[in-house]
């Protein structure tokens, strides 16, 4: 079996210069708001729970639309708005 050598950057047709495709930027680390004192990891667990709820709601919306492909971003945005509103209502109560 042949062994591949190191990966070389792709050349572009314009100007004949080599370009290296960069990795996508990492998501920023979400920190709790200033003045919020919590136990270590509590904020991260709450963020994870909220993201799981958003994911589940987005899937429900997908199924309600008849499982039509191609609108996953819209489903996610709608689900995120619904879940964040729910958390805001609970927080302000």
Question: Could you characterize what this model shows?
Answer:
- This protein has about 90 residues and is mainly α.
- It has a domain at about 40-93.
- Helix content is about 45%, strand content about 5%.
- It has 2 helices and 2 strands, in the order ββαα.
- The chain has helices at about 40-65, 70-90, and strands at about 10, 20.
- A two-stranded antiparallel ribbon has the order 1-2.
- Strand 1 (about 10) and strand 2 form a beta hairpin.
- Helix 1 (about 40-65) crosses helix 2.
- The longest helix has 23 residues, at about 40-65.
- The mean pLDDT is about 75.
Looking at this protein, list some descriptive labels.
two-stranded antiparallel sheet; 93 residues
- What is the approximate shape? flat
Report the helical percentage: 40-55%
Order of helices and strands: EEHH
How big a fraction of the residues is strand?
A: under 5%
Estimated radius of gyration = 22 Å
Structural class: mainly alpha
Number of helix segments?
Answer: 2
Distance between the termini: 65 Å
The largest sheet is:
2 strands, antiparallel
Strand segment count: 2
Strand numbers in spatial order across the main sheet:
1-2
Average predicted local confidence, pLDDT: 77
Uncertain runs are none
């Amino acid at each position: 079996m042949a062994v591949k050598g190191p990966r070389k950057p792709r050349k572009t047709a314009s100007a004949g210069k080599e370009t290296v495709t960069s990795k996508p930027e990492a998501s920023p680390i979400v920190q709790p708001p200033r003045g919020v004192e919590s136990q270590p990891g509590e904020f991260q667990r709450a963020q994870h729970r909220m993201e799981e709820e958003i994911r589940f709601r987005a899937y429900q919306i997908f199924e309600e639309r008849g499982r039509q492909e191609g609108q996953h971003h819209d489903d996610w945005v709608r689900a995120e708005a619904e879940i964040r509103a729910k958390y805001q209502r609970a927080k302000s109560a």
